[in-house]
Design brief:
Blueprint lengths: L2 H32 L3 H28 L5 H14 L7 H30 L3 H29 L9 H10 L20 H33 L3 H29 L1 H21 L5 H13 L2 H11 L4 H18 L1 H10 L2 H8 L1 H10 L10
Helix pairs in contact: 1-2, 1-3, 1-4, 1-5, 1-6, 1-7, 1-8, 2-4, 2-12, 2-13, 3-4, 3-6, 4-5, 4-12, 5-8, 5-11, 7-8, 7-11, 7-12, 7-14, 7-15, 8-9, 8-10, 9-10, 9-14, 9-15, 11-12, 13-14
């Protein structure tokens, strides 16, 4: 593993995924300042993920055919610009549009970044966990950076959120020098589409749970503990902080016990953590937020390496799906979850989510390690 390129790429990954973490942080402020209901704010999550879900695998196909390292800085700037404009567009439709721009930027970034990460790290579990860690840290930093900014300046302060994108571009530019970025080569080996499809189903289930949590857990705990909008958004610090720990653990646990056993245990633990978060009263529920976040994040980097190993001749496509279509698919159901919350309660939504990681764990039990390339 080349340490400096890995650190640079991981940091750049964090600057992009920071913006994916910003949309859930904005939810309590959009509710408080603009009076949107659960369905309306779920629409923002949908806008951030719909185009990304469809477009990201297409970028994966393109990066299988051509090397496109320039996508990294261009997508970073597009993502930052979309987020910066959120506070300046009071019209609901325009807000959806600029949030969609953020989603397209995320879609363009990840396939090429994952190809670069595989080339830099050699596809090892620990190296890929460091690349993934950058994204999770970006998620974790979103409430830390954004909540104080919005608390002080409201939604009108969002133009300042362009700064992380610019910093990310400056950090990533050294990776674009000749000889640093990987070429678009196709590895020989039999593609196992059946196992890849099953893995994709597992990731979709995880995505639904994670999007549901990031969208509603702040509001839920805010209601249960009588927190302000700022306090509700700050709950995401706990959620994303647990994600950092889980992502870093994933590669190391897989090196010791194997990817699939670790995935199975992690998903069973996530189901138990969700049950505690949903039904245990009082501040103790925050401990279950941490447990759930860690358990859901342990498999994250393992999904990427498994997907790339199941499709050894289509690494870009595998990366586009595992980091794109499957990861953001949960956002497509965000409005349905919002409608369920409006017609019942937030607790009912979280109770429904308990089933999904349990099913993911059962599906992981049917997977086998990819066949080695001869």
């Amino acid at each position: 593993m080349k340490r400096l390129p890995t650190v640079l790429l991981s940091t750049g990954h964090g600057s992009v995924d920071l913006y994916q973490g910003i949309v859930p942080v904005l939810v309590p402020f959009l509710v408080a300042e603009r009076g949107y209901d659960y369905v309306a704010v779920s629409g923002f999550v949908l806008a951030a993920t719909l185009l990304s879900s469809v477009v990201q695998p297409l970028f994966g196909l393109l990066t299988d055919r051509w090397s496109m390292p320039w996508l990294l800085p261009v997508s970073m700037l597009g993502t930052g610009a979309g987020t910066a404009l959120i506070g300046l567009t009071e019209d609901y439709a325009l807000t959806l549009l600029v949030i969609a721009l953020t989603g397209v930027g995320v879609a363009a970034y990840h396939p090429q970044a994952a190809r670069t990460a595989r080339a830099v790290t050699g596809g090892g579990h620990v190296g890929m966990s460091w690349f993934s860690l950058g994204g999770i840290v970006g998620f974790a930093l979103a409430p830390v950076l954004v909540v104080p900014l919005l608390h002080a300046g409201g939604l009108e302060a969002t133009p300042a959120l362009m700064i992380p994108a610019v910093v990310g571009v400056l950090i990533t530019l050294p990776l674009l020098r000749k000889g640093t970025a990987p070429k678009a080569t196709r590895r020989e080996g039999a593609d196992d589409w059946r196992s890849f499809a099953q893995l994709t189903t597992i990731i979709v289930l995880r995505s639904i749970v994670y999007v549901g949590l990031t969208t509603f857990v702040g509001l839920y705990i805010g209601q249960r503990l009588d927190l302000s909008a700022t306090g509700s958004s700050a709950v995401l610090i706990v959620l994303f902080g647990g994600g950092v720990v889980g992502t870093l653990l994933g590669g190391r646990l897989a090196n010791r016990w194997g990817r699939l056993p670790v995935m199975r245990i992690a998903y069973a633990t996530a189901a138990a953590g969700l049950a505690g978060l949903t039904f245990v009263p009082g501040p103790t529920m925050l401990a279950f937020v941490v447990l759930t976040a860690i358990a859901l994040s342990v498999p994250f980097s393992l999904h990427i390496t498994l997907g790339q190993d199941y499709l050894p001749s289509r690494v870009g496509t595998a990366s586009g799906v595992t980091l794109g279509l499957a990861v953001s698919a949960g956002g497509l159901l965000a409005p349905a979850l919002g409608a369920l919350a409006r017609s019942t309660s937030l607790q009912t939504v979280l109770a429904v989510l308990i089933v999904l990681p349990a099913v993911a764990g059962l599906l992981a039990g049917r997977l086998a390690e990819p066949r080695p390339i001869s």
